[in-house]
Amino acid sequence: MIVKHLEDVLHTKDDIDTLTWNSRRLLLKKDNMGFSMHDTIIKAGTETLIWYRNHVEAVYCIEGEGEIEVIGGETYPIKPGTLYALDGHEKHYLRARSQLRMVCVFNPPLTGTEVHDKDGVYPLPEETKA
């Protein structure tokens, strides 16, 4: 059994802070669950290009307002209670009007060191070892 509290992750190597987001990585590949789970803050007033070419992701908003714009497709509002799943590896912009707090689940699981490359992509877990 795994039991953690957000405070166990804050200010550790599993608390990744960037210009537009902060991912507190609660479950990772090393936990052998087959997925990773993150408590993520999207910073107010930001726009982030994201393309999970190597992963599928489900996101559940628990705080804030924003939108997700699928490149070449629709734009969807995000508010508390919104779930979206990137089951088709959709390249998208994530915009936060106010600070968004999201629960994110990835498959395959992240190792914990990933950040988006110039195309908004996370590398595959085996690529992070190099």
Name a few traits of the molecule.
RmlC_Cupin_sf, 1 helix, 130 residues, globular, lyase, Jelly Rolls, single chain, ectoine synthase activity, RmlC-like_jellyroll, mainly beta, six-stranded antiparallel β-sheet, L-ectoine synthase
Strand content: 35-45%
The profile of the biggest β sheet is:
6 strands, antiparallel
CATH class: Mainly Beta
What low-confidence regions span 5 or more consecutive residues with pLDDT below 50? none
Roughly how much helix do the residues carry, as a percent range?
A: under 10%
- Number of helices, counting only DSSP H or I runs of 4 residues or more: 1
Spell out the helices and strands N to C: HEEEEEEEEEE
Task: Write up this protein.
- This protein has 130 residues and is mostly beta strands.
- The protein has one domain (6-119): Jelly Rolls (Sandwich).
- The protein is built from one helix and ten strands.
- The protein has one helix at residues 6-9, and strands spanning 15-17, 21-27, 36-42, 47-51, 56-63, 66-70, 75-78, 83-86, 91-96, 100-107.
- The strands form two sheets. Strands 1-2-3-10-5-8 form a six-stranded antiparallel beta sheet, with no helix packed on it. A four-stranded antiparallel beta sheet has the order 4-9-6-7, with no helix packed on it.
- It is globular, with a radius of gyration of 14 Å.
- The model has no long low-confidence stretch (mean pLDDT 91).
- Its EC number is 4.2.1.108.
- This is L-ectoine synthase.
- Pfam families: Ectoine_synth.
- Catalyzes the circularization of gamma-N-acetyl-alpha,gamma-diaminobutyric acid (ADABA) to ectoine (1,4,5,6-tetrahydro-2-methyl-4-pyrimidine carboxylic acid), which is an excellent osmoprotectant.
- It comes from Paenibacillus soyae.
